[in-house]
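Students often ask why we bother predicting the structure of a whole assembly rather than each chain alone. The short answer is interfaces. A chain on its own may look different once its partners are present, and contacts between molecules only exist in the joint model. In this exercise we take two input lines together and write out one structure for the complete complex. Read the inputs first and try to guess which parts will touch.
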Amino acid sequence: MSGDHHSHGHSHASHAQHAPGFWRSYVFSVDHKVIGVQYAVTALVFLFIGYSLIMIMRWQLAYPGKEIPLLGELLSKQLYSGFQNLASGGVLLPEGYNALGAMHGTIMVFLGIVPLAVGGFGNYVMPLQIGAPDMAFPRLNMLSYWVFLPGGLIMLASFFLPGGAAQSGWTSYAPLAVINFGQTAWLVGMIFLITSSLLGSINFIVTIAHLRARGLSMYRLPFFVWAQLVTAFLLLLAFPPLEAAGILQLMDRVAGTSFFMPSGLVISGKAAEWTGGGSPLLWQHLFWFLAHPEVYVLILPAMGIVAEVIANNTRKPLWGYRSMVYAAVFLGFMSFIVWAHHMFMTGMSTKMSTFFQATTMIISIPSVIILTALVISLWGGSIRFNTPMLFATAFLPMFAIGGLTGLPLGLTTSDIHLHDTYYVIGHFHYVVAPGTIFAMFAGIYYWFPKVTGRKMSETLGKIHFWPTFICMNLIFFPMLIQGMGGLSRRTYDPQVYEAGQALAATLHKVITHSAYLMAAFQVPFIINFFRSIWAGEKVSQNPWHATTLEWAAPSPPPHGNFVGEPVVYRDPYVYSPVGRSDDYLPQFVGPEV
Amino acid sequence: MLASELLAQWMPINASRHGHQVDNLINVIHVFMAVLFVGWGIFFVYCLTRFRARPGRRANPELISAKGSKYAEIGVAVFEAVLLLGFSMPAWAAYKNDFPDKEKALQVRVVAQQFAWNFHYPGPDGVFGKTDYKYNDETSNPIGLDPSDPAGKDDVVSINNLYVEKDRPVILLLSSKDVIHCFWVPAMRVKQDVVPGMAIPIWFEPVETGEYDITCAQLCGNNHFKMAGRCHVVDRKGFEDWMKRQKLTVEPIDAEEDFRE
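Now the answer. The structure tokens for the assembled complex follow.
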């Protein structure tokens, strides 16, 4: 390993001296690539767990009160006295339903997508794309993973603690969250996760600012790097308020403070023991001040990946690269002043809601610009439909549905009917599931050869893509219809209400079976993933004939990443240049070639 | 058959005076969304077929000057401004600020709790009795009516059943005993979070008699799903008959039994 080392200005001197042992290489590594893979694999496991939780919930929604097949008995086991089993007599309990719901949201957002998009792809790809030998602060990078992991394990362990896992939704609104079971572990876990994000974001910003290769000016950065940069600022500026709020809520729970507890509460017929004087809405403001920028933390890296894959597979430069960059930066700024559109129904004055619905309409414009630029990029291309490209192209209409369905939710008057219904669930899942997760799949298929030196199977990739695409729509489109019909979300037994009967009940069955079917079609992906690590087709250092810097490094890149110092000569996406026989001219190839 | 069922399911029946404004906006936005998505989708699919890789074909690196996209983006922005200024803001301002005349409207206090809706009517005197949480008793006095207040003697408390008169505006004053709930009557196109520590007024005017669901739209605990009420819209006579049938829910008690002792 030290043999590959070269005299690069930013190299880590200590690693030049000796090859690190197993623990330092693969477990407590400071190498951004190892940390990236650790993040990605952990996040994929959490995505799997998060999806499993929703599959249990979905049974109850389709067949309320019916015994859960296969798992019912296991979930009904009382492990010790005081243990909160999720089901009883094989039937999911309301508290079990609420616990699964809260943990599904928390796991998917904070333990699945963010760590995969930022910790995984950001960590692995970004330093390579800017020609850096590693992150600016490798030890901080390692620390961020090792603070993230305990946060995740605390979340999982909370299912086995007395009282069970958190049951107050991933939004944890006070006063419910303050008086409800399982919330303490959730808050402690969140404090770990937020701290980890903070450590990571500082590292990303400094790395992009200081470690770019010679010749790599800001406007020569691949769009993915821009997306990661804006994301890092969002993490840095939006997460601290929630960390503070989390600690305040923890104090309300364990130290008897009343930050979020108003006076005069009567809980289950007894006067509450809190002194009161606090505000439940304060929590919502602090929470959404984080959680709205969080939405863009979920979507920006996805747009970054899609842009890379589309440029590569249309074999032509991205259309409107600069407007995409400006749009991403503008999106970042705007994302800090739209948060209260999640709170239109809290009794907000017309002045406040006027401001927030106006900013919400404005923030849709940069998303429209990015999406339009990506679609126009297809024009005049020579489009290769390999698996990464299939997922990247599918991202576009899916994100379009997700974005469009945000409009009626962003206007107060239409939000009266749609707020807190299945329409909301359909809307944000279209953004995050067939949106972001498709982009994540595209990224996995696209960069797999860089990480392993081998390609994933195209056949299995296509068997994975098509059914997943169909199932995603069978899962989320019906939710828009259910929501329009007036079905309230977070309802353990939807058939209690008229809006949950008839068509809505049938649709719940369709959704549930599609969800199970989609799970089955992830098996080809899992097989493909593991099989390809050892038996995938061996490929060259630049199998996609791509132009950005990560393809200048060997596959897999050694410690220190590049053989010789990479130098950048041109814009990121010089594809099919006129007067050349091959259809790509990488950033790192000198003009004399 | 599915199509007609879908259309019937599109939105629940509207039984309120202002509801059509909400429905109009929702319909206009969805038409706009559909037009945008279909137009965009045609271009998208056309690109995918026309520019698919074929042997011997090379991509054109020229970036087209797409004036169309600029117009489309400006068009989207203009349309959003219209939705905002022309539809959403006026309707919302009326819904939030133009309350009906208090004298003519039916006034009801709504006290939410885990997991029920308490509807407090002022009774024939039109004055709500004082309430305080220290008088709260889950079985006999769920809203904590002060037994010493004469104004409360004729008050009526109805649990989970809200009776209102057709064509008479209703003003509800929402409060919660414990956690945040959300008062939603889909058929009336009203939805409002019920936040403990706050008293929030809302109003609507029912225009169709019938029985409609009252939904709690905010997760409020294990039995959140059971927090379902009914909104009964009846004519004037029906309302008076119902009111007569309601007996005093809070028996006057001796001062010595007061909590203050």
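Check your guess against this: Chain A touches chain B through 102 residues (CB under 8 Å).
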